[in-house]
Amino acid sequence: MAKQARQTAVEALLQIDEEGGYSNVVFHNLVKRNQLSAQDTALTGALVYGTLERRLTLDHIIKAYSKTPIRKLTPAVREILRISLYQLLYLEQIPDSAAVNEGVKLTRVMRVSSASGFVNGVLRSFLRDHKAIPPVKDKGIVKQWQVRYSCPADLIERLLKSCTEEQVESLLRHSLGRPTLYARVNTTKTTAEKLCEELQKEGVQAEQEQDLCGCIRLDRTASLEKLSAFAEGLFHIQDKSSQLCAKLTAAQAGQRVLDVCAAPGSKSFTIAEYMENTGEVISCDIYPEKVKKIEEGSKRLGLSIVHPIVNDAAAKRDDLGEFDRVLCDVPCSGLGIIGRKPEIKYKDPKEFEALPAIQKSILEASCRYLKPGGILTYSTCTVLPEENQQVIEDFLTRHPEFEPYEQPEHTQGWYSALFPDMRDTDGFFISTIRKIR
Hints:
Layout: H1 2-19, H2 23-34, H3 38-53, H4 55-65, H5 75-90, H6 96-109, H7 116-128, H8 141-148, H9 153-162, H10 165-174, E1 181-185, H11 192-201, E2 205-208, E3 215-219, H12 228-231, E4 235-237, H13 240-248, E5 256-259, H14 266-274, E6 280-285, H15 288-301, E7 306-310, E8 323-329, H16 355-366, E9 370-380, H17 389-398, E10 402-404, E11 415-418, H18 420-423, E12 428-435
Parallel strand pairs: 5-6, 5-8, 6-7, 8-9
Antiparallel strand pairs: 1-3, 1-4, 2-3, 9-12, 10-12, 11-12
């Protein structure tokens, strides 16, 4: 039932906002627990991710119609208002009357019935004003973008210090709406052309990306895990930027490759496919449950050269030996993927301050695995130079045995600082360096 979908959405948002849960984990756990139908799952997903994406825009509206400051509203009331306003503004298929009435009903379901009149009043006042977003008094670009793109002012200011206005607006604009879904063809089993034909037979719209071989764009996907093409291991889901990162490792058949921060394993899988399932890919994560997921994925895809192990990327292990290629896709602030994980936008920027030190420690341990002549790929899903270029440049000043390794695919010779308006990717950073002795 639709009410069940909306209730689940409010529960999810409370867990994400009040308890700091990850949106994808919270969403999937609640959908499973509440046993939602496919239709209700779709509505819940639209409400959860859409409301997260547009939170500051929605709060700007609430502020204009509520005498009570947002921070003093009961958390459940605040989330009910947010998802109701989101429906009124952005879900055209839902009648305005349904959005309002269901919002009022939610106050009883969520045990805040004393606020039913307040919720009803805010929503109906917004409707009387023809659903017009109140103007932003401050004419500065930061405050305007804060409401237009629902991004905190301090984050916008931070991005503008290291990126151009065009790059920042590209990132913010790309963060709203449904992100493009990409998949990687398992080239050890099929071709992109054949996979697209197979998926279209199963009702999925699939189209090859012309600028990256083996990458396909998906639409009208329904439940991918129920597709026979998925069960047969003909593809795995992987963002385009991540696929490009795997390509730039330049791994060859028969080589040894180490992926030090591998979960959920998509880069390891794509690298193994580039290697024609010949050689060895050691795929690592510090958490056993994540390593199990990598095992399951490689088995489904039939990639026998992928060997998942539990390992701390910041600690060198002598028993692993030497490698031709090492991939360091390190933990980062994630500011390049706020369209896929919108809750990242609202984190305290102070949480990012310790990341460069962690990234450097992983790089220091990982470089010791590399053979002379081998290539190390360092990547993040952020756009902040202090986590990207500056980490590698600092490393190169301290390690004369390494040099930048240029590749034609790179945007800047030996590295790529990607923004959405360049290749329809997430914000992403990929660099390659070579051990010369």
